[in-house]
Amino acid sequence: MSNRRDIESRGVDLDPRQRPGIPMEQPPHPRAGAQIPIAQQQSPYPVLKHGGRREIPPVYGTAVPPKGLSGALRKLAYHYPDHWARHWMMLLMADRVDSWEYRLRRMLPLAAVLVVGGLTVKLLKR
Amino acid sequence: MRALTYQGPYRVHVENKPDPIIEHPQDVILKVTRSAICGSDLHLLHGLIADTRVGCTFGHEFVGVVEDMGREVKTLRKGDRVAVPFNISCGTCFYCNRGLTALCENSNPSSDLASGVFGYSHTTGGYEGGQAEYVRVPFADVGPMKIPDDMEDEEVLFLTDILPTGYQGAEMGEIKGGETVVVFGAGPVGLFAMKSAWLLGAGRVIAVDHVPYRLTFAEQYAKVETVNFKEVGDVVLYLRELCGGRGADVCIDAVGMEAEGSMMHKVLGLAKMEAGSPTAINWCIDTVRKGGNVSIVGVYGPPWNLINIGAAMNKGLTLRMNQCNVRRYMPHLLEHIRAGHIDAKGIITHRFPLEEAPHAYHLFAQKRDGCVKCVLTPHGHA
Hints:
The complex is a heterodimer.
Chain A: H1 68-77, H2 85-125
Helix pairs in contact in A: 1-2
Chain B: E1 2-6, E2 12-16, E3 28-36, H1 39-45, E4 61-69, E5 81-84, E6 87-88, E7 116-117, E8 134-137, E9 145-146, H2 153-156, H3 162-172, E10 180-184, H4 188-199, E11 204-209, H5 212-222, E12 225-228, H6 235-242, E13 248-253, H7 263-270, H8 279-287, E14 288-296, H9 309-314, E15 318-321, H10 326-338, E16 350-353, H11 357-366, E17 374-377
Parallel strand pairs in B: 10-11, 10-13, 11-12, 13-14, 14-15, 16-17
Antiparallel strand pairs in B: 1-2, 3-4, 3-8, 3-17, 4-5, 5-9, 6-7
């Protein structure tokens, strides 16, 4: 069992004025370094915004564009606002499809070798 | 560049990917010098966070050196060492103006749940993460904090997420001095919540987990009492008794959606009938005294969980929760590290080169080899 008297720094932030959460009770103000207006990010990346959002924000990520069947499912999911369960269920389904698509893509070279090999053996046997 | 990439549930590899580029005038490109694996990265690894696409790179706890910068970046220069909050925040919107940078509305087109987050699925904006040699950092004048010359990367690495998250967890408990605080989860965030509870003046801090080495670590690192919930039968009754029969004043959930302790919730979570297991929240609600405070910093995914909200209402509880608004805590906690109140790097148990990141994930997820926190070194130890 601990002895709280052993803890030298105990209570150093006891005064609420020492707590970083307190500034939120001050009048709103921009963070240090913030710039207005914010330029709009331009890219050919297909940004998917959920159905409850009016505009694309000025900055966004471009990690992995939607593609294949999983991409089609994601595009469909993003038609719905993010408070709809179907939005999330379709995205989770798309994740699983994405995973299977990836596995199939990885198996394609092996499958191609097997098909070509099989056809060659068949031709040689003739 | 080399980067960790997600390849479907439970699988990550390190691969070649194109180097990041400046995509917005307020971007910088960072050469990552240290990057940590977070407990919430395991939710991604396990396929529990929606819109986690194959090929994306995880990692939202990192520090590095500015390598390139957009034309509107004013406060940073090439070669500056910076610690980057996991939230991507514009600094000017309704929420940022109130210090709530975790809720920024200018960085995430995909959902209104949170701001953009590095390497945390397309649900939080689709940004690449920092478990790579290089990473793009938007709004570079707002989020990143310059690392003082007298401090090492590893000393400040956890200012990017888990230390402020733990602190905010304790702060949301509204500790006024002398309270009994129960922290569920003795992982990295839980450890920092325990340390923070002491800083805020708690009278007693109790850690609850089921992994023996983590409880031992918590006892030594945070000087707390510990309870292994697998050894005590009904953990709620045990804790209430331990807290004088009434319950704890404050309970903190530092576990999130992969909580052990309830077979029903675990099965429902695996079957996607709910978003993971909310066992830790329900234990918080049941363990805290009437009129007490419950603080939630564990991560939960959409769309829903079976939470005992009726008990919370009838007991008159205050529930507070949020992703951490990291930026506002960084300078304050930096001073605590400098003053020796918190030995942040003291929780690092393992260091790996980036190429061994999949092994590090495995070790961390399986809680093997006494693993508390893994740090990756994408450009070596120098």
